[in-house]
Structures are given as C-alpha cells and as structure tokens.
Amino acid sequence: MVDSILALATQHLDWLSSRQAVVARNVANANTPGYVAQDVQPFSALVADGGDHTGFSLSTTHPGHIAVDPTADLNTRSVVGSAWEITHSGNAVTLEQEMIKASDIHRSYSLDTAITRAFHQMLNMAAK
Amino acid sequence: MIDPLQAALTVAGSGLQAQSARIRIVSENIANAQSTGATPGSDPYMRKTITFSSELDKASGVPVVQVREIGFDTSAFPVVQDPGNPAADINGAVKMPNVNILTEVADMREANHSYEADLQVSQQARQLISMTIDLLRNSS
After folding, report:
1. Half-sphere exposure of B73 (CA within 13 A, CB side)
2. How far apart are the CA of A60 and the nearest CA of chain B, in angstroms?
3. Mind telling me how many Å the CA of B4 is from chain A's nearest CA?
4. B15, closest residue in chain A (CA to CA)
C-alpha cells in the first residue's frame, strides 16, 4: 500500500518535471515565429490504463513497448486549441498561461514531496 | 536524455540568451537612431531585426531557442532637409535611419517581459530540484 503510494508520488513527480521542462520550452519560445505552445499528456491518462495491478504504470499495448518511466521521452503533444491567443507571426504562447501552469506545477510538486516525506516518516516509525 | 528539470534550466537559459541578444539589437538601433551616412547622398544606418527559432541542442538533446537571423529592415528612409549635414545631397536632403524609437522601446519592453518569464521558470526549476533534495534531508 505504502509502496504503491510512493511509486505513484514518484511517477507524478517525474511527470511534473517533464511538464516543467515543456513549460520552460514554451516560455523560451515566447517570441519564436510559428511556435505553438505544447503540453504533456494529462497524468490521469498515464495512470488510468496501467497494465499491472496497481493501476499506476504505463500500459504496453505492443510487444515493442518497454514499460519504463512514462515521461522519460518527454512525450508532448501540441495543443493549438487551448492557446489563449495566436499572434500575427503564428506564435501561440501566452506567458500568463505558462505562468499559471508553472505555479500549478510548483503546488503539486510541493504536495508530492510532502506526501513522500510523510510516508517516509511513517515507514521509519514502523521500522524503529 | 538529461533530467527534465535540468532540461528546463537549459531551455530557460537559452531563452535568456536569446532575449539578451534581442535587447542588444534594440540598443544598437536606438544608439544609431541619428546615424546618417558619411558621404553626400549615402545611405544611413539601417534598422536591424532579429528572429528566433527552436532548434535541437546536439550536446544535451534539448530543443533550445536560438537566434535564427539578424536581418535588416528594408523600409524606406525618412528624408529631412539639412543642407549643412555632411550626408546631404545636392538638394540638401539627408536620409535618416529608419529607426522609430517608439517601436524600439515597445520591443524592449516585450523582450524584458519574456526575459522575466524565463527567469521565473528557471528559478522555479531550481526550487523543484531543492525540494527533491530536501526529501533526503528530513527522512533520516
């Protein structure tokens, strides 16, 4: 139980790190002509169809799939529709939107680390 | 593939570099807003432009932003009457640079805005890294 919660928290942290990298890319390209803001797949999509019993890992729908860190390859997708505005140069990055994403990431990340720490303390208490 | 948070720092750093280059171009334009040619009838300073592109950094495998091209604004030069100017032609007309200070200042503000956003992102990536390290600190 504790193991699967820690595993889930770790996966979520990995996912948040990837998302932060994507936000960084979007912000860096805030003035690049033709660049469209991207986002990672929602975390729920990654955990919903997990193949194992925990329901927390990536599904492998093809023999060639390797069940590793779901976000290792930074699988991003283009989200043209959700951009707040598109400028004349074809750039679809809104800094405000990216900042909201970034603060969202920050909040979730501190929640995750707090949960991980709490469970670590519980394990330690049990072990002592 | 490097650590995503490290990648975030790299990308935000490239954004900072790109925006600094842009501010450099803006300051060149503003500094040369009155630079006429040296010989009679010659062309004055031509306004510079800068464009960015997203490119893959081969060393780290991270798509960073880079300066694609520093070009020239080919719009017409405004002409003023100033017979005493060394660059004046026979009729006393002097071609002035096609630099509009207002445009440049607006451009600078936008670069500033993007620079701050980049800074914010790299600061946050650093916070996330230290949050992760703090996990080790408390759970002994």
Report:
1. 19
2. 21
3. 5
4. A28
User: Which residues of chain A does B65 touch, with a Cβ-Cβ cutoff of 8 Å?
Assistant: 28-29, 32
Which residues are CB-neighbours of A93 under 8 A, at least 6 positions away? A26, A27, A29, A30, A35, A36, A37, A83
Nearest CA-CA partner of A127 in B139, B131, B136 = B139
Structure ipTM: 0.82
Residue with tokens 């996912």: A15
pTM of the shown model = 0.80
Tokens of B5: 């948070």
Residue type at position B73: D
- pLDDT tens for B110-121 read 999 999 999 999
Task: Provide the Cα torsion B13, B18, B24, B26; round to 10°.
Answer: -130
Task: Report whether B85 contacts B36 (CB < 8 A).
Answer: yes
A110, B131: Cβ pair inside 8 Å?
Answer: yes
pLDDT digits (tens, 9 = 90+) for A38-80: 888 888 777 765 544 444 455 567 767 655 544 444 455 656 5
By Cβ distance, the residue of A31, A99, A124 closest to B52 is: A31
